[in-house]
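INFO batch 0412 | record 1 of 1 | parsing
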Amino acid sequence: QLLEFYSECRVIVVSEYSIGSVSRPVYLNRMLRDRGMIAVREELGRELLDPGASRAFAVADHQIAHVYVRDREDIPLVRSWLEETPGIETVLDEAGKKAWGLDSDRSGELVAIAAADSWFVYYYWLEDDRAPDFARTVDIHRKPGYDPVELFLNPKLKFPALTIGFKLLQKQLGLRTLMDVIPLDAPLVRGSHGRVGGSVAENPLAILPHSESVDEKSISAMEVYHHILSCLFS
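INFO prediction complete | emitting tokens
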């Protein structure tokens, strides 16, 4: 019965993105802080980014970063710094954002796109002992940017399983504890995504049941939607 049922099914496989090899982390916020654009506030000896008081800051997501600039007269200066930063391939202004479909009201005044071998790190502190407590945890809401280092356990932990088990036990006992087992070691990340313009082999993949109906070897993401509808209702 299962064979008979699934013989009538059509399977569609679509990947959201593909991962490319990277070897160079780019610290946009540290660059902006070195130039006096980032403001932080200190809490218990640790630093928290203060976006409202910052003249410019970056929200990083893998190989794309939205750079928010408070005063419009600072935009040309910030753009020149970004264009001089190794690991940045393109900096989009208003015209560039519109051409790439990134001209949302919530977009940064500038959008940085990383080079193929680079990715953007959200870190804004200059010394690791000043990093906020959530920096070494999995915390997608308080970090001002995506942190793929969350995929790793701190290699400096001698007994990571024991450390995690002890922290879980503390939680079970109702004690406050921080699951701070994530490193602050951006070079650990060796794969990233977000930029376009690489080789076809690095593009996302779509496997359609009637691929002969697709005229081109490469289709836009918007076209995938129409092919799915066609499979459902044809």
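INFO post-check: The chain has a mean pLDDT of 91.
INFO record closed
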